[in-house]
């Protein structure tokens, strides 16, 4: 500041000198070249100018040092897709909470959007990211009245209570007091209320929420370890539907058991411990047997007879699902040949997964088997789920077209539970749709299931497709299906599954009792 004033004084002196040099010389009484009052005024003005300059410098310096809005800081605490607080934000909040209330009991509720990769493949990253953000918002909206949940911040006076851990995983921190059951109760509420279908480009997008719960401090006092426990509980929940979503120490042993089961499955294939069962499909009016679906089982030497839910997912994880499926297909085609020799006519239906459907050698392998056993391809029905088609829609559609040209009958399995799209369905070369048993088994109990089943049957008939009702377990259900226009059914009302080797004898006896 002193330097600035000195500069101003020098500048002022120079200006005065230049001005005095240009003034005309006039004879006058002797007096000072510049009155003292004028000099003082000029000095005062120069001082004011220097002071203003100094104040401006100070203001500019202060403004430069002020913190600016830090968007980078925002994204360090928030997920860049959903905009919700991330794991780091959760850790910061917990550090504060647990210091102030170390004896309190909490629950970490982990939520995972199941099979989201299929949505991603179907709609692309930009659309799937939008859906992901919408699901996160739906979860948060359901928590608006839950005051016992950790609140990260407020947006437009609405609490933000969901943590986005990344990918399709979310977390909620709940104060449970002395009631651990509150966590499972809340989780089930979210599972029921959040997954409402979203309509995107004419396609109804369905999804489910997987749940895993870990308790503080019972299961751990560290966030990372609590998350590991919650993930383990979620895997257990997915592996055994209907199981508890709350972590227990037994789940650690269960994971070890699962790894052992994976090793045993490889040996089971080599040792021929796998066996095929069969369940007939009927014309519900005439009682004529139209087809029979083969169902795989595992005769485990220690655990007994295992249903496919216990090991098929393992087979996919291990990469042995294709050779396993080839074995099933050969057994089915060999059975068709045996039935033909005995002058017994019945189609055999086989389920195939997305990995099988996308395998380039599937059609070639079927052609070899048809030629080997001299079987008409029309006597084989392949059942493909909606979800299997969406693993890679273009390749799946191309493979379905190849199978159709081969002459194989095609059915869309579990219809009504996946990504139902009328436009997509019309392009598929399928002859039948199978209505999922979850609708059929409750058909006589709720009007909603009856309305949905009726709509599916009407839509299929309008498209010229046959309908197979899965899970028919009583006369009342059968009667309602017939009145809706569905002619074909499968379920315990006709027969429980039995070994495929006994199907020819069973079919001969059935045809004798029901000559049709």
UniProtKB/TrEMBL annotation:
<dbReference type="Pfam" id="PF00563">
    <property type="entry name" value="EAL"/>
</dbReference>
<dbReference type="Pfam" id="PF00990">
    <property type="entry name" value="GGDEF"/>
</dbReference>
<feature type="domain" description="GGDEF">
    <location>
        <begin position="104"/>
        <end position="251"/>
    </location>
</feature>
<dbReference type="InterPro" id="IPR000160">
    <property type="entry name" value="GGDEF_dom"/>
</dbReference>
<dbReference type="GO" id="GO:0071111">
    <property type="term" value="F:cyclic-guanylate-specific phosphodiesterase activity"/>
</dbReference>
<dbReference type="InterPro" id="IPR050706">
    <property type="entry name" value="Cyclic-di-GMP_PDE-like"/>
</dbReference>
<dbReference type="InterPro" id="IPR029787">
    <property type="entry name" value="Nucleotide_cyclase"/>
</dbReference>
<dbReference type="InterPro" id="IPR001633">
    <property type="entry name" value="EAL_dom"/>
</dbReference>
<dbReference type="InterPro" id="IPR043128">
    <property type="entry name" value="Rev_trsase/Diguanyl_cyclase"/>
</dbReference>
<keyword id="KW-1133">Transmembrane helix</keyword>
<feature type="transmembrane region" description="Helical">
    <location>
        <begin position="37"/>
        <end position="55"/>
    </location>
</feature>
<keyword id="KW-0812">Transmembrane</keyword>
<dbReference type="InterPro" id="IPR035919">
    <property type="entry name" value="EAL_sf"/>
</dbReference>
<feature type="domain" description="EAL">
    <location>
        <begin position="258"/>
        <end position="511"/>
    </location>
</feature>
<protein>
    <submittedName>
        <fullName>Diguanylate cyclase</fullName>
    </submittedName>
</protein>
<keyword id="KW-0472">Membrane</keyword>
